[in-house]
Amino acid sequence: MPRECIAAWIGGYTLAMETYALTVNGESKAVAVDGDTPLLWVLRDHLGLTGTKFGCGAGLCGACTVHIEGQPVRSCSVPIRALAHAKITTIEGLSVGRSHPLQLAWIAEQVPQCGYCQSGMLMAAAALLRNKPRPTEEDINAAMTNLCRCGTYPRVRRAILRASGQTGSAS
Known about the structure:
This protein is of the alpha+beta class. It contains 5 helices and 6 strands, in the order E-E-E-H-E-E-E-H-H-H-H. Strands 1, 2, 3, 4, 5 and 6 form a 6-stranded mixed sheet that branches. A hairpin with a 2-residue loop joins strand 4 (65-68) and strand 5.
């Protein structure tokens, strides 16, 4: 889809609005936004996909983790202009029509407390399992850099091990 450039005068600033073509959760989408708009806000405000959460806005906490071309990325730090024609998966697209094994493990291990960080945690864990179907606890510790104010890290580790078909306790 060709980009169409339109100008909008808002509060004394000229924003260069362009149309960006993306594939989000397997569906083609086009959004007209300023190129500096973070993917997080495109997903939430323009596409109505509110499962991806705003946490810190600096790419540190991981609440906004999505997959771009299969890789976990903090969506608050990625401008939409860098993503033309990218394939993006959000928590809403993690499993279509059935529960993802991680979601089932999350429930079985009673991972969520407040739940705010969970969509980002699940997306990071899904990328880990795609790359390492049988991760060690060290692999989990290295890959799971998302922050959880409730401190559910031991349950997250157990859920990832459960989803990978491994048994045993994780601390």
